[in-house]
Amino acid sequence: MFALFAVAAGTNVPTPLLLVYQQRLDLSPEVLTALFGCYAAGLVPALLLAGPLSDRLGRRRVALPGMALAALASLAFAAAGGSIALLFGARFVQGVVSGVVFSVGSAWVGELSLASGEGAGGRRAAFAMTAGFSLGPLVSGFLGQYAPAPTVLPYLVHTVLAAGGLALATRLPETVAVVPVGDRVDGVRAPEVPLIRRGDGALVATVLAPVAVCVYAFPSSVVSAVPLLVELPSAGVAVTGVLAGVTLGAGTLVAGLQRRLGRWTAVVGVALGAAGFGAAAAFAATAALPWLVAAAPLLGAGSGLCLAAGLTLTARLAAATRRGALTSLFLACAYVGFAAPFAIATAARATSATLPLSVAAAATGLLAIRLLPPARRSQL
Question: Any idea which architecture 2-171+199-378 has in CATH?
């Protein structure tokens, strides 16, 4: 779990520093949100490759190199300085590394938690990742605002954290008994198990995939798009760090509620996201800080519940030999949500920030209503 936490912390270290880059390099909101979102361009292919690879080679052989590269990605950021090309490259590599660790690490935690009952692995992985997503930008925001070398020191701190996570992960046991596809078991050629089993396709398409997109569309919108489109109070870098910490910290706090909410977890999560987008739209229209204070925890809590619900359903639907692959597919869908800040920023330039945020609130509200019957059937 600590390794998941450490890698997750690194993914949002650059978030509050976007304002530093904006000031130093005179970058537009579109370029900054593209920098934030290019992480997903590296992450999604890595997700789709790493999960299936770990099903065949084992979790340790895939996850541990990814954890080592997480530290190197932060060092690349620290060396990037004022080079836009290097910043994009470091963010892309960070996405690749995170794709490997999140997909394989989530499956690994789930398998290590089987003795604790259904849903335990999903809750633990969600808690570890959301805690990292929260504390990473909180620390980097204050370091970026008040410490020397604001574009170097936060990444060096994370490098140390990632090295500690790697050291702890090396002690974990392998959980996969590898049987290569096509090998013979008791003289019979082992059939390849389908990724999505017959009868589960509609559930994956109408419940798992849209819930996955909400996981990161919710927090990335309020953490990345809103601070760039609406003027924040003084000490904007620190405020952005606190905003990210509150948003993603709320996701950490609610992850454990999945056990109590049961089948309503995804519905409640999406509904909270709709309310959060509504509050963000009100902030964009009025610049009244209380609306932003409300939007951050609502969107963060919605994200945390959607992540816990999605990982639990993924574990339930996956065959034992395809758990890594299906976890990768779920997280790949989740990271599509990182396109939300860019879409909001682009639409805001043509209209205002209020309109795309209001549209997001309405669309998410409709999704919550749409999820009600499948949520009951799937017990998300």
Answer: Up-down Bundle (1.20)
Measured from the Cβ of residue 102, the count of other Cβ atoms closer than 10 Å reads: 28
Radius of gyration for the alpha carbons in the chain, expressed in angstroms and rounded: 20
Q: What are phi and psi of 83, to 5 degrees?
A: -90, 115
> Per DSSP, which regions of the chain are E strands?
184-185, 188-189
Greatest pairwise CA separation for the chain in angstroms:
71
Which residue bears the tokens 């690349």? Answer: 76
91-129 pLDDT tens trace = 998 989 988 998 899 888 888 888 787 677 777 888 888
**DSSP letter (8 states) at residue 344:** H
Side chain identity, residue 103: S
- The full set of domain ranges for the chain reads 2-171+199-378
CA distance 310 to 209: 9
Contact 176, 55 (CB under 8 A): yes
- Give the span between the Cα atoms of 228 and 35, in whole angstroms: 13
pTM given for the model? 0.72
